[in-house]
What we know:
oxidoreductase; N-(1-d-carboxylethyl)-l-norvaline Dehydrogenase, domain 2; Rossmann fold; alpha/beta; binds NADPH dihydro-nicotinamide-adenine-dinucleotide phosphate
Amino acid sequence: MSTRSYAILGTGAIGGFYGAKLQQLGLDVHFLLNSDYEQVCRQGLLIESPTGSFTLFPVQAYHDPQKMPACDVVIIALKTTQNHLLPQLLPPVLKEDGVVIVLQNGLGIEPQVAEIVNSKRIIGGMCFICSNKVGKGHIRHLDYGMITIGEYQENYQPIKITPRIQKIAEDFNHAGIPTELSENLLLARWKKLVWNIPYNGLSVVLNAKTDELMNSPDSRILVEEIMREVVNAAKGCDCIIPEQFIQKMLNHTEKMTPYLTSMKLDYDRKRPLEIEAIIGNPLRMATEKGVDLPHIAMLYRQLKFLDFKNRSPDS
Ligand SMILES: NC(=O)C1=CN([C@@H]2O[C@H](COP(=O)(O)OP(=O)(O)OC[C@H]3O[C@@H](n4cnc5c(N)ncnc54)[C@H](OP(=O)(O)O)[C@@H]3O)[C@@H](O)[C@H]2O)C=CC1
Ligand SMILES: CC(C)(CO)C(=O)C(=O)O
């Protein structure tokens, strides 16, 4: 049994789910909470999942990172819109030889984290999961769960699989969370964006679930055109995604239970949207390499407009 300790920064849909699974395995897990803190201290974390529902109790819950122990592995599971808090949240919970795993959607977060901790201690993770926080301390896992993990190196240079990510992957695997290891984090992030940019973006702009986006010939064309732009953007950043990958993502989404993307859920709850991490940063990275991305640039401006309007006091 591993003796690694874990800190979860942001005990929501993914942090709550993955952290609870790791604790269920018997690992030492410490959870940072915001508005759910008191409820979770009293009643624990309720995890509903098709793979088995359970209540995690007791929970090592904290409201203040200064009161948390320094851990071997820190999982960043906040929304990226809260990442401005990381300079306060991260240093107290990370052991001197510990590592940070960025389990957030999007691109360009690891370089931001590298401004807080040494870049040699950063790992990126992409979650292929459908999970929602549906109430205080209440996580509903709907489908999937796999995580792809890759070491971060400055400027996203590819790097061989290291023993430390193998060990972390073993913890996840033993906890029932399938993992895949990647030697090229930048490529893995771009591949995830082939899904996230069209579906997260269009779900808000067109007010639609995944099945609606797939069933209308018009929105399906838009999805495909945007996916093609993401593949071109990735190519401009030296990441080659085969053309068949687009069809694979389309087929996969057709089979998915109709799903409201995380960006649409945030929009409906009038929360800030992860526009910069999911669309703005990739758009800027590829534009700097000279790639023209008219659909994505338009999607970015539309989302910025809608997000601003949605959260203005008179909306
Ligand atoms: N949900 C999913 O299926 C997937 C999500 N992702 C990505 O994972 C990341 C996390 O998303 P998700 O889990 O859905 O988000 P959630 O909103 O469900 O979880 C974020 C959690 O962070 C907490 N939080 C916010 N501020 C603080 C703070 N200052 N201190 C402590 N906790 C805080 C929130 O608490 P409170 O609500 O009380 O503020 C919330 O519980 C995102 O980047 C998302 O894009 C990726 C793949 C799938
Ligand atoms: C691809 C998906 C649906 C789950 O991995 C997701 O990332 C999201 O809703 O933001």
